Amino acid sequence: MKARVKWLDNMSFVGESDSGHSVVMDGAPEFGGRNLGMRPMEMLLLGLGGCSSFDVVLILQKSKQQVLDCEVHIEAERVDKDPKVFTRIHLHFMVSGRNLSGEKVERAVKLSAEKYCSASIMLGKTAEITHDFEVIESA
């Protein structure tokens, strides 16, 4: 896997993935940024959420669950001094569907966290990562 990050101007950068997709990153205004894009640490959290959500949906689909929606809300804490690493991250999954099994949703979240999600396992080396979920019955 390869990626490229190129400086645009001020504190704005564009990142391009090996698959050809691009994203703009920018620094906070107090550091010379213009708030044109996400901060790099925000992108780490989004990567974690995307990786975990992908796993949860895939595991549930393989378990023959009728998943209609999956959303994860992420809250994180960082230390105040450099390097400002994450120390605590909490993921709250909201999984919607028809006749979903709470046990199967719990299993999918656990398997993602402990076995499949590379981002979760990697970030778990420096941060305490917790998860919970809710099942929402769709009409």
UniProtKB/TrEMBL annotation:
Organism: Thiothrix caldifontis
InterPro entries, alphabetized: KH_dom-like_a/b (IPR015946), OsmC/Ohr_fam (IPR003718), OsmC/Ohrsf (IPR036102)
Annotated PANTHER family: PROTEIN YHFA
Protein name in the entry: Putative redox protein
